[in-house]
Amino acid sequence: MGVVIVHMVPCSGPEALQSTADNLCRMIERIGGQRDGVFCVDCETYFNTSMGRTQHVLHDSEHPASVFSLLESGLCLVADANFDSLMNKLTPQLFTTKMGTKVECKGPRYQVEDFVLKVGTVTIGTSARGLLVECEYQPCPVTASCWELMRELMESLLGVPLNQPGPYLALRMREIYTPVDTIQQYMEHFNVLRKSNPVQAVSAPASGQSGGQTNQNAQTPTSKG
Amino acid sequence: MEKEDKQVDQAVDALLSRTTDLKNNIQQLILRLENEYETLQWPAVLDYFALISGQMNNLLKVLRSDKLPKLRNRIILPLLVSPDPDPDLQRVTDGRVPLFNHQAVPDYLRTLCDPEIEAADQVILNKAAQMNGDAAQKLIAAHNRICQNACEIIRSTREDWDVDATSRVAPSIMSGDTIVLLSAICGGRYLRGPERAPNPSLGNSCPKPMGGPMGPGKMPTATVRTNIKSARGMSSHPYMR
Amino acid sequence: MQPLGPAVPSALNGIAIAGLRLGEMRGKFEQQSSSVRIRQTLGGYRIMQAEAPIVEQPLTRKNAANLQEYLLQGSILDSSADVLLNRLRGLCDNSDSPVELFHDIEQVYTIKDQANQATFSLRARNALDNPQLPWQLRYVGQPEVGDKSRFTICRSVIEVGTSSNLVTWLNELGFRLDYEFVAKGHIFQKGRMKILVQKIHRVCQSGNPETLEPVSQSFLIELSVLAPPSQESLGEEMKAFADQLRPLVELEKVDHARLHVS
After folding, report:
1. Statement to judge: residues A130 and A23 lie in one domain
2. What is the ipTM of this complex?
3. For position C134, what pLDDT does the model report?
4. Who among C53, C159, C163 is closest to A82 (CB)?
5. Where is the stretch described as Disordered (chain B) (predicted)?
6. Half-sphere exposure (Cβ direction) of C183: Cα atoms closer than 13 Å
7. Residue C262: pLDDT over 90
8. Tell me, what DSSP letter sits at residue B186?
9. pTM for this predicted structure
10. Mean pLDDT, chain B, as a whole number?
11. For residue C11, is pLDDT > 50?
12. A60 and A82 share a domain?
């Protein structure tokens, strides 16, 4: 397991999403990226109305045998694929899910030497909301050791400076990276995108996290559902 | 006439086969008794006896069957009697009958009992003819009673043996424990709070269905098996066949 | 099969730092990531990434196999347990390798649903002798009723392997610990049948799995198969096996509705 950085790409509007994504893909191919299929990270939200608890159930095509269950407090349970049948069993009595709240991030996956780059379009329900780029540096497990390297690559691809990692990752620079961290990063971005209006343009970020005018407390997301 | 002949032939063949089997079994038993008498166990000998008795039953069945013509009406005549050993006869009888002389004829072709036995038989028959009806009935009743008593003694002894066999084999199941354990696992009984599972003493050789911690009025019927029934299959009593 | 726990990422990292590509490690782990055994669902999330992630869609989710558990249960006194173990050893697979032992703690968590006044239970099982193995979260359904001709209990079961923060997760969702017990014993396998001979202990001090007390003087025996529904030949197979254990043990279909549950 390497280190993964998920970054939201600034877009001037939903119409520009596709063109920005295509540009990025072209740039990746220019630096030697081999297209390696597609990837998908999705998130479904379940509510327990009687206890008032929410859990987000995420799947990552990079870890196809696992299902991640993220709670409001940030606790993440990693389970195997049978977890989905368990959730099927528990809904609708214990948990309910609202239609149209499913968040998906899909797109092509590229392998560039020791890096894996993914360009994903985030759709909530049927509307496209944003663009996420994921960069994985496979050989190194500790974020602090390879942050500079990854920053260089991302800045060259995106054309914007990345001053610091996102709030979640910033606290864990010296720890061994785990797949749960990837999921948490995606969840951060999903929460931001959920709150943002699809028509509203997302301004260029000053930090690694986009949505400068939205609040920074993506660490403890409360989903609107 | 021919039909009868054919029937007789068939009957003789059947009798011959049964007798051959019987002869073989007896031969085996004799061989074992002679050669392996040091290691031979009583149950094995009993096996042989059982086999022989079965064979005799078969033989008698054939003899009693309806298809058999009246063999009583047929006689066997010796056609040639000679004092010399006959190799053919020896071969056919496996060396048991070397010659067919004047001594052999009455032994092998006998149709009546020995004279001594005939005389004893006659005495008994005379006695029976002299007895009148009442005494005869009393005798018959006494005879039946004795037979019943003998049967009773055998039956009770066999039951005693059975129980002995059971108690010697330790019971391996405590009925009710399955329920206790499953109540614990599935329902959490005996796992919360101070309640403990009841511990029926193991000296109980006749476990009742309520040995487990049943609520009042609940009888687990299908789940109870008594020890006696379970141990019965394990009994290796020699007469339990 | 060795459990692949936290030790593995460090091994991976150790080599990775030296500059090897992760792709070369792929082959080593692929064969180990195939089967999922009882309680030994692999800490898959750490290994799966070694596999080729060329998946167009995530694994089928909504139509995951609905497994049924076919079950026969019985008990045997402690004094006769050795005889049974020897007999099982002879009857079951792998009789030349040592018998597999297990020492698990199982906790049952329930949540009350105010709306329907129903209670849901989930079971969390952890191997005490091998804490690196994934925890097992289990949903056990009610046994199917009404089928008198079927020899075995049939109920739906969903088993999920999870990371070790399962209890915290359950507590945060609102589940509360109802009861717990420790099961210690032997596990045998014959074909697709699994036979457990286990001693059930209660935990005298909650939180301290060392303070144990046996619940009864018998071992609990379970013969079970996890299979898709409507497999009638299974019943015959299980019945034949149960007959081979008579009269030492009577494995039968215990009516769970009659268990006196407090």
Report:
1. yes
2. 0.79
3. 92
4. C159
5. 196-217
6. 23
7. no
8. I
9. 0.61
10. 77
11. no
12. yes
**In a shared domain, residues A134 and A81:** no
Range of the domain at A74: 42-96
Q: Does domain B1-73 have CATH number 1.20.58.1710?
A: yes
Chains C and A touch (3+ CB pairs under 8 A): yes
Query: Is A215 inside any structural domain?
Result: no
A141 and A114 part of one domain: yes
Q: Is B110 exposed, middle or buried (0-12, 13-18, 19+ CB in 10 A)?
A: exposed
For residues A157 and A112, membership in a common domain is answered with yes
- When divided into structural domains, chain A yields a total of 2
In the CATH hierarchy, which fold is given to the domain comprising C8-258? Hypothetical Protein Pfu-838710-001 (2.40.320)
Q: What is the DSSP letter of B131?
A: S
> pLDDT under 50 in chain B at which residues?
201-241
Q: For residues C134 and C51, which has the higher predicted lDDT (pLDDT)? A: C134
Residues on chain A touching C22 (C-beta within 8 angstroms)? 2, 138-139
Show me where the domains of chain C are located.
Answer: 8-258
CB distance A37 to C97 below 8 Å: no
Average pLDDT over residues A158-187: 87
Residues A81 and A114 in one domain: no
* Binary contact (C158, A86; C-beta < 8 A): yes
B181·C200 Cβ contact <8 A = yes
Residues A171 and A112 in one domain: yes
Report if residue A25 sits inside a domain.
Answer: yes
**C223 vs B contacts (CB less than 8 Å):** none
Where are the domains positioned within chain B?
1-73, 75-111, 115-160
Contacts of C259 in chain B (CB under 8 A): 179, 182-183, 186-187, 189
d(CA B42, CA B45): 5
* Residues of chain C positioned with their CB less than 8 A from the CB of B227: none
Of B184, B214, B222, the CB nearest to C255: B222
Q: DSSP state, B237?
A: -
Residues 6 or more apart whose Cβ sits within 8 Å of residue A149: A137
Tokens of A33: 């990226």
Determine, for residues C166 and A85 on separate chains, whether the beta-carbon distance falls below 8 Å: no
**C148 in helix, strand or coil?**
coil
Contact A77 C53 (CB under 8 A): no
